[in-house]
Amino acid sequence: MNAPDRFELFMLGDNEKKITEKIYAGMSNTSDFILLKEDHTLANLLAEHLKQAPHVLMCGYKLAHPNVPEVFIRIQTDGTITPKEALIEVCKQLIGAYAQLQREFTREYELRKMVSAGNQDQANGF
Question: Which Gene3D superfamilies did the record assign (predicted)?
Fold first, then answer.
């Protein structure tokens, strides 16, 4: 009864920002990012790719609570780039990779559709 409406778990409100950055003073070249309305799906993807980035020394994430759709990501770099730049670069790489996957999937789907249509024409005597 007191659970929030389902759309509130993924849609941002009027005054909510998707990502906020807080520079972490405890370690050099480190920032904490809070991603609203996200969960393990995006956080794990970002963290694993950030760990593979050349200038990232450390990256990890945690969820505040299972019922709170909010992810906390900490990124530390070697100082060559800022943590924000590292996050942006990884996001650009992921967008490019998924765009390529979409193109390949669409091409394969269209080819299979043409082959299937050709097989039906042969079965009908055309």
Answer: RNA polymerase, RBP11-like subunit
